[in-house]
């Protein structure tokens, strides 16, 4: 899987959180990854920052169906400072978990072209989810840029939608009060007002949830949060 990374280590871990509303997206992505081959099998997930693209990709990557369908699984994050050698080394690191491969220290002595040849050699004849395209393989790419998604998957890029109000509230509730959902019912109405101001973005909701989890869980406190968010959006 390929992802462009602009992540901030200070932001909450969206992948580790319980994210509501991704079930239908996950079914679509898994079906496309395991379906019949086309001329060029690149599946893209596009959407604005914080909407959960990487989370969806990770859930697909770890899905039991995907694990059984592909012989090899490679996850590569491409930063804004793209280095081809780094991508190859990440790929070889993933491959080494599945195959008998020589000592990784030997990679430092190899040219980029030799590393690329080694990746191709190790993948030849296998079915895999990887960063390069070969027959029987798939590429799953996440991007914020619609133009990039259309360029690599012009027929049907998968665009992620914002969370609806109910799923937004569930995400906030679960991450403030835990999966048991033992929350004061008088906070539900004001809680939905809070998530409405988050505009359906999971990452924004998780930031607010982290803030609320450290505060007094009272109606007055949550009203203050609504007021502050209203001032920010104004």
UniProtKB/TrEMBL annotation:
<dbReference type="InterPro" id="IPR042197">
    <property type="entry name" value="Apaf_helical"/>
</dbReference>
<feature type="domain" description="NB-ARC">
    <location>
        <begin position="137"/>
        <end position="178"/>
    </location>
</feature>
<dbReference type="InterPro" id="IPR027417">
    <property type="entry name" value="P-loop_NTPase"/>
</dbReference>
<dbReference type="InterPro" id="IPR002182">
    <property type="entry name" value="NB-ARC"/>
</dbReference>
<dbReference type="GO" id="GO:0006952">
    <property type="term" value="P:defense response"/>
</dbReference>
<feature type="domain" description="NB-ARC">
    <location>
        <begin position="28"/>
        <end position="131"/>
    </location>
</feature>
<protein>
    <submittedName>
        <fullName>NBS-coding resistance gene analog</fullName>
    </submittedName>
</protein>
<dbReference type="Pfam" id="PF00931">
    <property type="entry name" value="NB-ARC"/>
</dbReference>
<keyword id="KW-0433">Leucine-rich repeat</keyword>
<keyword id="KW-0611">Plant defense</keyword>
<dbReference type="GO" id="GO:0043531">
    <property type="term" value="F:ADP binding"/>
</dbReference>
């Amino acid at each position: 899987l390929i992802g462009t990374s602009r992540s901030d280590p200070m932001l909450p871990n969206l992948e580790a959180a319980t994210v509501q509303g991704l079930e239908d997206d996950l079914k679509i992505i898994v079906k496309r990854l395991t379906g019949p081959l086309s001329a060029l099998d690149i599946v893209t997930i596009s959407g604005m920052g914080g909407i959960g693209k990487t989370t969806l990709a990770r859930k697909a990557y770890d899905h039991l169906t995907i694990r059984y369908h592909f012989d090899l699984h490679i996850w590569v994050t491409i930063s804004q400072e793209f280095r081809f050698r780094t991508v190859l080394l990440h790929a070889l690191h993933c491959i080494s978990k599945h195959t008998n491969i020589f000592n990784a220290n030997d990679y430092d002595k190899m040219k980029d072209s030799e590393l690329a040849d080694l990746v191709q050699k190790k993948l030849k004849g296998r079915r895999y989810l990887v960063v390069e395209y070969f027959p029987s393989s798939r590429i799953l790419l996440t991007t914020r840029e619609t133009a990039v998604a259309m360029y690599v998957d012009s027929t049907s890029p998968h665009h992620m939608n914002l969370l609806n109000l109910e799923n937004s509230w569930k995400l906030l509730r679960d991450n403030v009060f835990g999966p048991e959902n033992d929350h004061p019912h008088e906070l539900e109405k004001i809680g939905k007002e809070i998530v409405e101001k988050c505009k359906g973005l999971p990452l924004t909701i998780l930031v607010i949830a982290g803030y609320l989890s450290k505060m007094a869980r009272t109606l007055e406190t949550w009203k203050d949060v609504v007021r502050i968010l209203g001032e920010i959006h104004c």
